[in-house]
Specification:
alpha/beta, Leucine Aminopeptidase, subunit E, domain 1, 2 domains
Length: 499
């Protein structure tokens, strides 16, 4: 779409040719007066029909041509601050708005942010309030067009933001651009086809990008994975001609501080999931190129943390495999020995994500972090339970659950907590191994989480996020419709910012 340049506008507004101005009016008792005042100040006239259409109960946006060219077009958007209003309103509105300009010759966009005081009920931080506007423009502008023979020309668009607090707006722009860099990196990885993004290529791309941001990267090849007895990764990966990789990322934002708090982030990195011997139905199998979404999110979060110099230490762990059927594939009935020494009875090779995560959780636990959070497109059952736009949250730590839940409401990467009671353990009890990798149909998102729990050190706060629904393209809002979404990057960045 556009090559964007975000600019903090000053008190003096200079409208260049081919400019569009967007202003918001709050739909309340004084709306009529505010609307008339805006038209008068802008020296614009409308027909009575246009006015009444905009002011009506169902009216929303109105676009007015300005023949003196200052600006060329004025767009007025009416906001209804009612029970349906959320922290995602401006982000979602602007994502749709920037897409509506895609085929226009606009060169300058002026966005006037409404006064923060009207929205304190929804935003407890003024800078973050401003960030939702910037995020909306950039999220809506995302595209993945590298494989088109004929690409649309990319036009430059200067986007001016105006607010009551220039200092906080400047800070919001600077931080938003770095966070969006992490989001877009994750989305680029997610949207890449699996014939290109093999485990080795995933590892090399993450290494190249994150090393340039000052992050320490280690990549274990199949020989090193075998030496470390990571039987879960080896079992799933051996069916493919593309061998597995195990990626370790270290970001040290606290070097000399007395605080040594460390957060471990683990991301499932299945670059394509055919289901293996327990092969999936062909319908929607193409989406399984994004079964490495957890890995992409971990890489994107750590990139954003490094770019913004977050004062926190992060360990990133990504087991990367391709799950394919072949003569070498692991099979139902196999026993897999993991690096923890625990054995897994394989009931279904399509429950492969938890098998590779067993080695990742063991690796992270040995580093003794304060918190472990794993992200995985783990179960379709979670999507059945919660829908496409909410991730499942599993943890026994109430403090961690509360922090993640509230952060999700803020960023609109929303989570919903599901039970992790020990009653579910019997569903994955094996007669011939320490645990089996699949329970019965009922509660299968929970039994998947209970499986993972067995590989986490008991003294470490741990949360599992099942992002199978919101990681994939969905019609919930304007910035998730076409492409894999990067769900979780903004969520975990904000969580880490408060750690």
């Amino acid at each position: 779409m556009f090559k964007l340049k975000a600019i903090s506008g000053g008190k003096r507004i200079l409208y260049k040719p081919f400019s569009v101005s967007l202003k918001y009016l709050i739909g309340e008792k004084k709306l009529n007066k505010s609307f008339e005042n805006l038209l008068r100040v802008s020296n614009l006239k409308l027909s009575e029909l246009q006015k009444q259409n905009f002011l009506s109960k169902d009216g929303s946006d109105i676009r007015i041509s300005n023949y003196n060219g200052k600006p060329d077009e004025l767009i007025i958007s009416k906001i209804k601050v009612d029970e349906r209003f959320s922290t995602d309103y401006f982000r979602n509105h602007l994502a749709g708005f920037i897409q509506s300009l895609e085929n226009e010759k606009v060169k300058n966009l002026h966005i006037f942010i409404p006064k923060y005081e009207h929205f304190k009920k929804y935003f407890d931080d003024e800078e973050y309030y401003y960030r939702t506007f910037i995020e909306g423009i950039y999220l809506g502008n995302y595209t993945f067009d590298k494989y088109f023979k004929q690409k649309k020309s990319v036009r430059e668009l200067e986007v001016y933001f105006y607010s009551d607090n220039g200092r906080k707006l400047n800070a919001a722009i600077a931080k938003s651009l770095k966070v969006i860099e992490g989001v877009n990196f994750a989305k680029d990885l997610q949207n890449e086809p699996s014939n290109v993004l093999t485990p080795a290529v995933l590892a090399s791309r993450i290494s190249f990008t994150l090393k340039s941001a000052g992050i320490k990267v280690k990549i274990f090849d199949e020989k090193e994975i075998k030496r470390r007895k990571m039987g879960g990764v080896l079992a799933v990966g051996k069916g493919s001609v593309n061998p597995p990789r195990f990626i370790v990322l270290e970001y040290n934002g606290i070097l000399r501080s007395k605080s040594k708090k460390k957060i471990a982030l683990i991301g499932k990195g299945v670059t394509f999931d055919s289901g293996g011997i327990s092969i999936k139905p062909s319908a929607h199998m193409d989406e399984m190129k994004a079964d490495m979404s957890g890995a992409a999110v971990v890489a994107g979060v750590i990139l954003a943390a490094a770019k913004t110099k977050l004062p926190v230490n992060i360990l990133g762990v990504i087991p990367a495999v391709e799950n394919m059927p072949s003569a070498k594939s692991f099979k139902p009935g196999d026993i897999v020995l993991t690096s923890s020494g625990k054995s897994i009875e394989i009931e279904d090779t399509d429950a492969e994500g938890r098998v590779i995560l067993s080695d990742a959780l063991e690796f992270a636990s040995k580093a003794k972090p304060d918190v472990i959070i794993d992200l995985a497109t783990l179960t379709g059952a979670c999507v059945v339970a919660l829908g496409e736009f909410v991730a499942g949250l599993f943890t026994k730590n109430d403090k961690l659950a509360d922090e993640l839940y509230k952060t999700g409401l803020k960023t609109y990467d929303r989570l919903w907590r599901l039970p992790l009671w020990d009653d579910y353990n019997y569903l994955i009890k094996s007669n011939i191994a320490d645990v089996k990798n699949l329970g019965i149909r009922w509660g299968s998102a929970i039994t998947a989480a209970k499986f993972l729990e067995k590989f986490v050190a008991k003294n470490i706060a741990w949360a599992h996020l099942d992002i199978a629904g919101p990681a994939m393209a969905n019609d919930f809002n304007n910035y998730t419709k076409k492409y894999m979404t990067g769900f979780g990057v903004r969520l975990l960045f904000e969580y880490l910012s408060g750690s």
